[in-house]
Amino acid sequence: MKNIIKILLLILVCFTFCSCTQKVKHDNDLISIINDRKIFKVGINDGSKPFAYRNEKGELIGFDVELIKEISKKIFGTDKIVEFHYLTPSNRILSLNSNEVDVVISTMTINQERLRIVDFSKPYFQTGQAILVPKNSNIRSGKDLANKTIGIVLGTTASSNIKYISPTVNIKGFRNYKFAFDELQKGNIDAISTDDVILQGIVSDYPDYKILQDRYSTEFYGIALRKDIASQTLKQEINSALTELERKGKLLKIEKKYDINYRR
Predict the structure, then answer these.
(1) Torsion of CA 135, 214, 176, 200, to 10 degrees
(2) Could you count the other beta carbons within 10 Å of the beta carbon of residue 94?
(3) pLDDT, tens digit, 9 for 90 and up, residues 121-142
(4) Which end of the chain is less congested by CB atoms within 10 angstroms, N or C?
(5) How far apart are CA 179 and CA 6, in angstroms?
(6) Residues 73-96: tens digit of each pLDDT
(7) Strand 149-153 to strand 170-174: parallel, antiparallel, or no bridges (unpaired)?
(8) What is the pTM for the complete model shown?
């Protein structure tokens, strides 16, 4: 009888321990948290055509928008739980690490500096830094930027790259691409520099501007996550979803829809 009681107590202890372990895992795992709240909080920049922008009806569309919805379908079975939070390049890392959002998909370049403070999915797009000028500009290449003023968006990789192109260029920072382009239209700056695919989105609306031929970097976009244990399962699932979307041709299909065939 005593042995039976001991066995029952042991079973009870094991059951309690296992239940607690499962609860800890459930509470700390970001996928479980998202499933419980039924909201997938995604940070995005809605001023980066063709990746995320507003159409004539004010609806949010673009490559990043469709991609994260497809990923949500793969992981959570639906894209209806995606809740977009509109961020700028300068506040997207802060918003991620302060738990305002679960992930950031925002034409965000993977680099060593950022990898020290955030984690990234596998790359989903490749591009390169370029320069945008009016068609009548006498700037033909980066060498012609000496003592000129170029606009960049704060929080991007453009400023560090541009100094290698022209050490004497004057750099003016802006909150977003719209503000930078407004200043270019007014003649207050001479050029804009950022990723070529974003500049292509501007040129598609404003044909009086052109992108110079040279590319000054190789940039890989990734989906940013927090550097914590809770995000690791979500990162694995995102990578798995990206692999499947690429294998089935879905990534290429979305690229063609937005005329951004820049994968190499």
Answers:
(1) 60
(2) 12
(3) 999 999 999 999 999 999 999 9
(4) N
(5) 73
(6) 999 999 999 999 999 999 999 999
(7) parallel
(8) 0.83
